[in-house]
Amino acid sequence: MKIVSVNVGLPRPVEWRGRRIMTGIFKEPIAGRVAVRRLNLDGDRQADLSVHGGVHKAVYAYPSEHYPFWRQELNLPDLAWGAFGENLTTEGWWEDEIHIGDRFRAGTAEFIVTQPRTPCFKLALKFDLDDIVDEFLQSARPGFYLAVAKEGDLAAGDAFERIHEDERHVSVTDIVHLYADRNSRPDSDLLRRVVEVEALPQAWREHFRKRLV
């Protein structure tokens, strides 16, 4: 389990379908050690802080294992690390193995898993594909957001080690399935565990609390 690539980028204006949009989705791999701050990595920023960034979305991680699927699906064999706007491209962890509230160490920094990614239209902008947002959600390959529990530094090649496993065992995939299957009857035991996970942002917990019957 390790970090394959560390990717950063600053917001920049992009002309897309007659609109001028500021976005930080374009990330590039960076060499050497990178400082991890409370709200982001050095050299990285988010454009629209109303929906991106903040304490619960300080760092975005995406499993490298998903890249072969997307390279084939999008017919982009040279799709590079950071293509989905992730800060950390990881190896060895899948969303169904990672729980909300799990704590990870990479380099000298520590992180807490907070939520899956639910992409906005800027993913469509990045690839100029209207249907990629829905496809991304339906693929069950969302990646996961991290809060910074301890500032430090990290680099590509560092171990990505779980140092605490949340006792409620609500996986990132569990949240994705509950969110996507809004019209089906949910597992009430899972819902009860979900709303008790303190690391899950309040808006998510309130959303699922309303579904408890």
Salient structural properties:
213 residues; alpha+beta; M1 Pyruvate Kinase, Domain 3; eight-stranded mixed sheet; two-stranded antiparallel sheet; 6 helices; globular
Textual characterization of the structure:
The protein has one domain: M1 Pyruvate Kinase, Domain 3, CATH 2.40.33. With 213 residues, it is an alpha+beta fold. Helix 5 runs antiparallel to helix 6. The strands form three sheets. An eight-stranded mixed sheet has the order 4-1-7-6-10-9-8-12. Strands 2-3 form a two-stranded antiparallel ribbon. Strands 5-11 form a two-stranded antiparallel sheet. Helix content is 22%, strand content 27%.
In short:
This protein is α+β, with helices and mostly antiparallel strands.
Beta-strand content bin: 25-35%
Q: Spans of 5+ residues with little confidence (pLDDT < 50)?
A: none
Number of strands: 12
The CATH homologous superfamily name equals PK beta-barrel domain-like
Give the helix/strand class: alpha+beta
How would you classify the quaternary structure? single chain
Question: What's the layout of helices and strands?
Answer:
Elements: E1 2-8, E2 12-16, E3 19-23, E4 28-29, E5 34-36, E6 59-63, H1 67-73, E7 88-91, E8 103-106, E9 109-116, H2 121-127, H3 132-138, E10 144-150, E11 152-154, E12 160-164, H4 172-180, H5 188-195, H6 202-209
Parallel strand pairs: 6-7
Antiparallel strand pairs: 1-4, 1-7, 2-3, 5-11, 6-10, 8-9, 8-12, 9-10
Helix pairs in contact: 5-6
